[in-house]
Amino acid sequence: MSARGYSMEEPVNVLVADDDPVIRRLMQRRLESAGLRVLTARDSDEAMQKVSDLIQVALLDLKMPGRGGMHCLQYIAKNHPAVESIIITASSEIADAVEAMKNGAFDYLTKPVNLDELIELVYRAASTFHLKQENRQLKAAMGYPASHIPFVGDSPSTRQIVETIRKIAHLDSSVLITGESGVGKGLVARLLHRLGPRRDHSFITVSCTSLPRDLVEAELFGHEKGAFTGAVEKRPGRVEMAQRGTLFLDEIGDMPLDLQPKLLNFLQDRSFQRIGGARTIHVEVRVIAATHQDLKKMCLEKRFREDLYFRLNVLPIHIPPLRERKEDIPELCSYLLGKLAQRRSVAPFELDPEAVESLTNYDWPGNVRELENVLERVTAFISTSRITRKDLPAEVSGCEARLGASARGLAGLPLAEVEKQAIIQTLELCKGNKSEAARRLGISEKSIYNKSKRLGIRI
Hints:
This protein has 19 helices and 16 strands. The chain has helices at about 20-35, 45-50, 70-80, 95-100, 115-140, 155-170, 185-195, 215-220, 240, 260-270, 295-300, 305-310, 330-345, 355-360, 365-380, 395-410, 415-430, 435-440, 445-455; strands at about 1-5, 5, 15, 35-40, 55-60, 85-90, 105-110, 175-180, 205, 245-250, 270, 280, 285-290, 315-320, 350, 385. The protein has 3 domains: about 1-140, 3-Layer(aba) Sandwich (Rossmann fold); about 155-320, Rossmann fold, CATH 3.40.50; about 325-455, Helicase, Ruva Protein, domain 3. The strands form 5 sheets. A 5-stranded parallel sheet has the order 4-3-5-6-7, with helices on both faces. A 5-stranded parallel sheet has the order 9-10-13-8-14. A two-stranded antiparallel ribbon has the order 1-2. About 30% of the residues are buried. It has about 450 residues and is an alpha/beta fold. Helix content is about 45%, strand content about 15%.
């Protein structure tokens, strides 16, 4: 069952509550022609009697007889929180509609209702209903308690990150998560969502680095039919899809500079217009952004708007690279190996002490993501459940040995020779990658070339 690209495996049950019999019958016929099941009510009292957990979407006239649409909305939000409510209102009652959205409405439509827009909105609301239902079932199946934070490690920095997540998860302020690629910025964003009051609503990700530059605005804010070449139908953006949930702007540093003012305006009042549209759309979302880039430096270089930076950086979280919290590595390995064994339904994996030593001494330029990939690759090829040093990739298993031999052989060597060996061995460790070698040595790539020339190192 589908409409405008929305697909439902289960029937969608809709409650239509309106005191005007003509409008009620018109909406009922149109919804049923789209394959939806419809229940009707003449006023708010009848609507409250008929609503149940079998209803996915409720269409509520704001000015119904009885206790009114607003009271009905509040009743549904309290007693049937999974049901998505859409408010029908006159154009002169926009302020009331916005108030209704603050009280839990999914969205609103103004009279006279565009029936095609109605169908699209109902299917979007039903999609959100089913997504929340799947999330609840998944959490129940996995047995995750709401208080569990799987950000593993016992280093001081990791303990501080976990404590920060606990403190700010229930807040609505914007969060900016910084750190190198692979440290777990996306995990922290999802934890903030899952532990907060929006956990039953959508978590929508916008990857600013992977979207084509000319499609970022359309993906964010949506577009009307005919707004540009190829816009063959109206399409909501990611911002609308995140209604009442969380909008995660991943790699915000790659947001095109010319689009940043529009994003800033949205962050200021949570309203926007689709491309090619005249209607102002209001949404109620929490915004979390993440980046591996230095936004302060980008602001000084005029590559990122300073006012947007301050608007995003209300609650900052910085995640240090794994090489700066190596005491987390043994516990991380145990956690990741446990996940792998559970996923593959095999006996638990074990690491022998030498393997733990090698894994701990390696610098992990790809951070936790690289560690997870290495463990997955190793466990795919071993014939037993015990992982030894020889099972590890050469760059990991040989790291400790090279560092140890280097450390034992430094005494009495001229400083120039120590510097030469440091550069040679680091280049070997980085497989000739001069940029990575420079980063590890704490010098510039230009210095690598200058020092190599002075010390007679062929690179």
